[in-house]
Amino acid sequence: MGKSKAKRFRSAPFSPAGPQRAASGEGPAGEDGDGGSSAAELLEKLQHPSADVREFACASISKMLQQKHAIPAFLQRDVVRCLGPMLLDQSLAVRETAAGALRNLSACGGFEVCDDMVTKDIMTPLVALLKECSAGLEANEVSPTKCKDSKKNCVEDIANEAVNVLWNVCECNGTAVSVFNKEGCLDVVLQYLKKFSTNVDLAISVAHCLQTVTEDNPELLSSFNASAHQVLESIMLSQDNTMEHILLRTLLAGSVWNIKDTIPSSSQASTINAILKIFSESLVVDAGETVIHMKEAETQRLKLTAEAETEENVSDTIDNSVLNEDDEMEEPPKGKVKRENDISDLLPSDKWELKQVTALLMAQQTALEIIVNMCCSEDPSDDEWEELSSSDESDLFMENSYDEGSGKPMSPLCLSAEVHAALMNNLIPKKILEKTAFPKSVAVDICTHSPSWKPLIRKMNTVQCRALTCLHSILLVSDMDCLGGASTLQSLAQHLSQLVFSQPEFPTHTEFLEAVTSAMRALLQTMASKNISQCMTPEQLMTLCEAGIHSSNISVRVNVVSILGIAGSVLAKIEDTAETLKMIGKFLLDVAMKDPSLVVAGEALDALFDVFADGTEAEKAAVQIKLLPALKEFQPVFKIRMRKEGKGQYSTDQLCVLDNVKMNLRRFIAYQETLGGKKTT
Prior knowledge:
This protein is mainly alpha-helical. It has 31 helices and no strands.
């Protein structure tokens, strides 16, 4: 009813499930049977005097908590209060596995479990652990603390697990965010962030956490002093070109956008240019080609590794043939290190290529979501922004970024006309448009035939949907000239039509349908307001609407009804369109009378008002489908539905809009009666 609204995105709700904790030996007894018995036994072992036993228990609990059905048994036995003290255990290995278990609990348990974790005071030991790790990192610069795996740094690995727990609980619970603010956790995690050049995984975890805690958190803004800005600046201006570093910079750019009120007017232009440069850096990469190349690289690497191991095994066999037959001691083959207490992450070192592609897709998704949110910002006055220039990115967050004297942030950064122009120019809308295409079939085929790569298909589809939503938002805040003129809009309309109609079967994926119909709706609104001819045929329109109206998603149904209303109002001004208008009118009447949602019914009525508001063809069609009698008969039914269903089911804003529809229905009926009276006389 009325213009479509831009959609806002929040930061990712949960971190990926924590590391696959593979304890040595067999899995916990009864793991597939009596989960309650297993939970009780493992929690009891947390009190064992042997650190190895405690580590085994934490690792086993961590593994079980990745299965949602196992979580209730642990919650009933107060797993949070049992694991909390383990975060400060004397054994570093126990600390890491305990943090990993809590990470899995928070990630797999969801919002209610995270709330329960905060209620059970997980923040006290968690914050203490984070602070100890921060102090430990400084000590490690002199004498690093190594884990059982000599290539790993224990303190950094523990910090990574702890930051992921912090991220998850802060995303779900306001109390956790308040604790983050009051306990000075910002300085702690910024200390971790400085390790980005040697431990990008830890830095990415911190960046995810920062994006969460900086969102709608004015209390934290005063903590972002010049030193904090300099840490963010140094990473955003770094030149590392791996996909993981691109993701890191993208996440931090999102955090900078969240704390835009701390940016001084003198640095606003360079800040927005730096943010957009980072987004452009991630969006310019072709994810489909990256999948193809990375999969080829993985295949070649694994082939060479297998050949090398075969040669070493042959060599070992020859060497062993000279040993005495009584010698029963067998060493594992070289190149294969037997790790009984393997606590590797979900994407271990032998999945490097997969990890790179995953990071790229997350970076692109994040960039698109932040652009959507930038487009949703409140409209500022023009004097709030300096004219953007091609200033040097090195000016980002200079000394004046924070007024140390007053202790107050300076003028705010908002989406003004200048920022919008920079968004269009720096990102090059073509990059966003390219992301709206379906993933390359070759890339999809590669992922389909590789179990570990198969989840990338969903991630590629998500990027496409975010790009469509981003396009929708840009269309809402842009004028025709910024978008490239009438010809560009017509080409864009053809592109969106092809997305829907070029597939062998009509798309049914809800997220895609919502995104593509939202973009179509915004585009058709813009084209109609500028009297630009539509590109979709009546047959295509009806196919889209007839398929979309059966979606279980209300937004999809609202969009297709609105699209039909926009197209119909344009057709009403063209000669010899009465038959098409009849088809549109019947469809909209049917939706208004039968759709179970009052919001969709109201949108259908609104569309009817637009289509049959004026024009000879519209009047002719209205008479032939008996629009006036149908609406007069439906009017009391609509009023009754609003009285019965309105309260409790719909928001105040929705009810306000529905009241306007009800009033407009009365006026439209009166208008149609006037038209009928004129024809009679």
